[in-house]
Write a structure and sequence with these properties.
alpha+beta; three-stranded antiparallel beta sheet; 28% strand; globular
Length: 93
């Protein structure tokens, strides 16, 4: 996935912070998704419009891990959110 990719939440998706996790509700599918703290942090940054590269750099520094590995993990998470219809990719051209 392109490191400059940006996203927004699908219109049918709402979310709520609860202690230690984030609940996403997909009204289209009438389904809840529960994100742990790490996935919730990625979700928040994605829907705020940060690029995959920006998110990876920030989280790699925050958690003192390899940036390339973090980028791969975030790309995988974004791909999963896209496949589930929770995110919509924005045209960054």
């Amino acid at each position: 996935m392109d490191a400059d990719a940006r996203f927004r939440a699908a219109p049918e998706v709402t979310w709520r912070d609860v202690p230690g996790e984030l609940l996403l509700f997909d009204a289209r599918a009438d389904r809840y998704h529960v994100l742990n703290e790490a996935a919730a942090e990625v979700w928040r940054r994605l829907v705020e419009g940060a690029s995959l590269a920006t998110i990876a750099a920030a989280l790699a520094e925050q958690f003192d891990v390899d940036e390339a590995a973090m980028r791969a993990d975030i790309s995988e998470a974004a791909g999963d959110f896209l496949a589930r219809g929770l995110l919509i990719a924005l045209d960054t051209r």
